[in-house]
Amino acid sequence: MAVSIAIVDLGIGNLRSVWRGLNRVGVAASVVADARGIRSADKIILPGVGNFGRAMSGLTRLGILDALNEAVQIKKKPILGICLGMELMANRSEESGTQGLGWLNGNVVKLRPGDPERFKVPYIGWNRVNVTRSAAIMREIDENAEFYFLHSYVLELEIEDRKVVAGETVYETAFPSVIQRENIFGVQFHPEKSHDAGERVLRNFVEI
Fold first, then answer.
1. Whether the bond into 78 is cis, omega within 30 of 0
2. CB–CB of 128/145 below 8 Å?
3. At what angle do helices 16-24 and 195-207 cross, to 10 degrees?
4. Cα–Cα distance for residue pair 1/153, rounded to 1 Å
5. Could you confirm whether 195 is annotated as catalytic?
6. Which of 70, 94, 192, 195 does the annotation list as catalytic?
7. Which residue among the candidates 70, 140, 190, 199 is catalytic per the annotation?
8. Tens-place pLDDT, residues 163-206
9. How far apart are CA 51 and CA 151, in angstroms?
10. 87 is known as an active-site residue
11. What are the pLDDT digits (tens) for 48-71?
């Protein structure tokens, strides 16, 4: 039986690249913007390019916050947050002072490198992920594989929730780049733009 995957349309950013990425691994995903689409899917993807506040406003405007919480927190459907999509899982972001989904006990903070001439913000480029514990979405990925990053903000988790971190990336200092807790998965990079390694991440999520 085919797995149904819903890509949530937040009304910001380019989610078509995520849709095409899933197509490349043989999955005909649906782009959804209502509660019915969330409830009927087996798995969910929160894509991620844009502003935290506008993304949360989009979820509220579409009336899908309750459906998302029900799917993830109660029915335990697997969900993958990509870049901003992962950041939305936190309590709050300093980008706009907006409250997030609250699935992760931490906040989203801006990258503030000590050497801003060398380490530009937003961070745009390719980098490795240091897998710190077993992570289903990183299965069968070479430790030297690189992924494409494009972001200005990162997760800053409370001590008791740092165990959700399954991978870190260093850009002057280390930040969480892969998280996993039960059915909740997130990556700070863009798998849909990360060639073979990124396609493996998407395939792993499909196969969970």
1. no
2. yes
3. 80
4. 38
5. no
6. 192
7. 190
8. 999 999 999 999 999 999 999 999 999 999 999 999 999 999 99
9. 11
10. no
11. 788 999 999 989 888 899 999 999
